């Protein structure tokens, strides 16, 4: 079941959306009629999807969406002139008011597909130096070719631990990882872009330290430069 949060300044609109969600087997975790309160709480709410009204006093839904991280978004509005801006934000869908049940169901089906794809890439299982191991992709900071055996990959995690992935090519590895975040930067290294703090055309700095205690710097080769820039 999809878990969603609603933001709309009109209480009647919230009640109607709750009713539709219930009929479409979508769980409403919480509803807000104030954008500022919504932003204060949303990062602590376990949900997959945010349904945002666009036209609201003080702060509109487009501005709110730009401040949300890691949630899928459906916009609702009575004003068609916001459509172009809404889709520029790479949201799931844009539903015109008055909302029809069939149209909202289409939006939920799109969201469910995206959520399923995201969950598939949350982890993968591979043979490591510890045996068969489940690795959560959001814990990975960076990966490099092993200096002991070039067929293996050294993987560095957020908790400063390391694993050795046995007999795994970067090509196969890229199929196991979320392509939105992981990118190869040279022949021997791949990074999670969420951990890049500084980057130029030839170098990146990660939010982890090297053995000398300084921020880790990695070279970006010309062959992979465009792929890195595309992620940003």
Automatic annotation (TrEMBL):
<dbReference type="GO" id="GO:0016301">
    <property type="term" value="F:kinase activity"/>
</dbReference>
<dbReference type="GO" id="GO:0000976">
    <property type="term" value="F:transcription cis-regulatory region binding"/>
</dbReference>
<dbReference type="InterPro" id="IPR001789">
    <property type="entry name" value="Sig_transdc_resp-reg_receiver"/>
</dbReference>
<keyword id="KW-0808">Transferase</keyword>
<keyword id="KW-0418">Kinase</keyword>
<dbReference type="GO" id="GO:0032993">
    <property type="term" value="C:protein-DNA complex"/>
</dbReference>
<dbReference type="InterPro" id="IPR039420">
    <property type="entry name" value="WalR-like"/>
</dbReference>
<dbReference type="GO" id="GO:0005829">
    <property type="term" value="C:cytosol"/>
</dbReference>
<feature type="domain" description="Response regulatory">
    <location>
        <begin position="3"/>
        <end position="112"/>
    </location>
</feature>
<dbReference type="GO" id="GO:0006355">
    <property type="term" value="P:regulation of DNA-templated transcription"/>
</dbReference>
<dbReference type="InterPro" id="IPR011006">
    <property type="entry name" value="CheY-like_superfamily"/>
</dbReference>
<protein>
    <submittedName>
        <fullName>Histidine kinase</fullName>
    </submittedName>
</protein>
<dbReference type="InterPro" id="IPR007492">
    <property type="entry name" value="LytTR_DNA-bd_dom"/>
</dbReference>
<feature type="modified residue" description="4-aspartylphosphate">
    <location>
        <position position="53"/>
    </location>
</feature>
<dbReference type="Pfam" id="PF00072">
    <property type="entry name" value="Response_reg"/>
</dbReference>
<dbReference type="Pfam" id="PF04397">
    <property type="entry name" value="LytTR"/>
</dbReference>
<keyword id="KW-0597">Phosphoprotein</keyword>
<keyword id="KW-0238">DNA-binding</keyword>
<dbReference type="GO" id="GO:0000156">
    <property type="term" value="F:phosphorelay response regulator activity"/>
</dbReference>
């Amino acid at each position: 079941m999809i878990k969603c949060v609603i933001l709309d300044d009109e209480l009647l609109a919230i009640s109607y959306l709750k009713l539709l969600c219930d009929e479409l087997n979508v769980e409403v975790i919480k509803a807000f009629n104030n954008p500022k309160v919504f932003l204060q709480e949303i990062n602590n709410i376990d949900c997959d999807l945010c349904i945002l009204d666009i036209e609201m006093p003080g702060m509109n839904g487009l501005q709110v969406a730009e401040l949300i991280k890691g949630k899928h978004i459906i916009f609702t509005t009575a004003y068609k002139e916001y459509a172009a801006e809404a889709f520029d934000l790479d949201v799931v869908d844009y539903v015109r008011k008055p909302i029809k049940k069939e149209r909202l169901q289409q939006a939920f089906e799109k969201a469910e597909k995206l959520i399923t794809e995201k969950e598939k890439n949350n982890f993968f299982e591979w043979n490591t130096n510890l045996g068969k191991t489940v690795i959560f992709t959001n814990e990975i900071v960076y990966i490099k070719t092993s200096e002991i055996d070039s067929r293996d990959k050294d993987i560095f995690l957020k908790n400063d631990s390391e694993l050795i992935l046995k007999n795994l090519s970067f090509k196969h590895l890229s199929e196991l990882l979320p392509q939105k975040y992981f990118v190869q930067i040279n022949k021997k290294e791949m990074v999670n872009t969420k951990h890049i703090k500084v980057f130029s055309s030839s170098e990146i700095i990660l939010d982890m330290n090297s053995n000398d205690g300084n921020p880790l710097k990695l070279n970006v080769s010309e062959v992979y430069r465009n792929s890195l820039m595309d992620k940003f």
